[in-house]
């Protein structure tokens, strides 16, 4: 990993109301959220960012690994009107439910270009 990049690619935070919790000092600077973008410098993972996020009091509790594939330089279909990302992804979740999801861009039969989502 690139140790020099860690401070520049790190975000820390504290959820609103944390200092009001029982047993927490009034001026506490303890982080309750952290996000990191890390790179592994070897031939296999060159240029691939690993994004890690964890925190307390988030909207949902989940454990998930998402692999987002690179977007292709030339698209067969026009860009979507809703602005949704085009890149395909593969997601594995183990909490709260076990799920394996593959989302790919595909042409549905007919003249209109739409996205097919398979689960």
Structure description:
The protein is an all-beta fold. The protein contains no helices and seven strands. It has strands spanning 10-13, 33-39, 49-55, 63-68, 89-95, 99-103, 117-118. A hairpin with a 3-residue loop joins strand 5 and strand 6. The radius of gyration is 20 Å and the shape is extended. The mean pLDDT is 80.
Write the layout of secondary structure elements.
Blueprint: E1 10-13, E2 33-39, E3 49-55, E4 63-68, E5 89-95, E6 99-103, E7 117-118
Antiparallel strand pairs: 1-2, 2-3, 4-5, 5-6, 6-7
- Name the structural class: mainly beta
What is the helix fraction of residues, given as a range?
under 10%
* Arithmetic mean of pLDDT: 80
Instruction: Choose one word for the global shape.
Output: extended
How many helical stretches? Answer: 0
Secondary structure: number of strands = 7
Gyration radius, rounded: 20 Å
Record the strand order, biggest sheet.
4-5-6-7
- Low-pLDDT runs of 5+ residues are none
In short:
The chain has 119 residues and is mainly β. The chain is built from no helices and seven strands.
């Amino acid at each position: 990993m690139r140790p020099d990049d860690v401070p520049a690619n790190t975000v820390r935070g504290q959820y609103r109301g944390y200092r009001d919790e029982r047993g927490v000092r009034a001026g506490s600077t303890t982080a309750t959220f952290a996000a990191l973008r890390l790179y592994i410098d070897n031939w296999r993972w060159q240029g691939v960012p690993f994004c890690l996020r964890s925190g307390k009091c988030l909207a949902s509790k989940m454990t998930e690994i998402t692999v987002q594939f690179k977007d292709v330089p030339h698209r067969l279909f026009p860009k979507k009107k809703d602005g949704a990302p085009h890149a395909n992804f593969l997601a594995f979740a183990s909490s709260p439910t076990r799920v394996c999801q593959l989302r790919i861009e595909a042409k549905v039969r007919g003249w209109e270009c739409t996205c097919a989502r398979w689960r």
